[in-house]
Here is the input.
Amino acid sequence: MPDTRITLTETVAADCLTPAQVETAKAIYAPVTQGRTGEVLVAGFSPGSELGWNTMAGT
Here is the structure.
């Protein structure tokens, strides 16, 4: 299985994600949970689903 972790490095290139973009991607991958109980209400998006993010965003 490929490594699907999102990480930041000291080197920043034009084709790298910004820290804000990394946090947004982590939120999209994360499940939606019930605040008090932590129960998973909706699964997060799977790695590899990035091409469908425009549909999710309504664009």
User: Anything to note?
Assistant: The mean pLDDT is 80. The longest strand covers residues 40-42. The radius of gyration is 14 Å. The chain is about 25% helix and 10% strand.
